[in-house]
Design brief:
Length: about 210
Amino acid sequence: MTEFSTTTNPFQVTGRDDAIDEPTRRRLHAALAEKAQRAGVLDVAYRTLDSPLGSLLVAATPIGLVRVAFAVEGHDAVLQRLATDVSPRILDAPEPLDATVRQLDEYFTGRRCRFDLPLDLRLARGFRRTVLEHLPEIPYGATASYAAVAGAAGNPAAVRAAASACSHNPVPLVVPCHRVVRSDGAIGNYLGGTEAKRALLALEAAA
């Protein structure tokens, strides 16, 4: 378990972890996560999963999915930011993210065109959040320009702000910022890297 606060961590396990075999450690960790959830003291649950784009970290609050992070972002750094921006009461707790992992797997294997998950968009504010709320309107397999997205969000002149909202999307893949490209057809930036963006667009085009 990872501690992200200088204050006392109620979830900290003392003793020598290397004296515990792996199945026992997993069982104890699962019991700890369940106890934290029942007590209402788990503010952020997270887990990692393998994907065609590499390792992904997904995190959720009781409200909904709050973060999807690519390996290139540095998962430890992402967790530190979540501890600062959301809550230090954060734990590797897979169960609350089972639906997220299942839907991501369905997406990557061509069996899902749209995600059906509750979202917690607290990490995006103002115009950025408005932009993100409109991105699911872009159909699977289609693209839209940053200018079109800015217009849909209510400010046609805010093309740069729309591009910034996409490049700082805290829940990529689920909120499909990869479907937004430049007006000249150039692919544009992406949090997971331009190759990941190309791969996602190719995946959807082939479906």
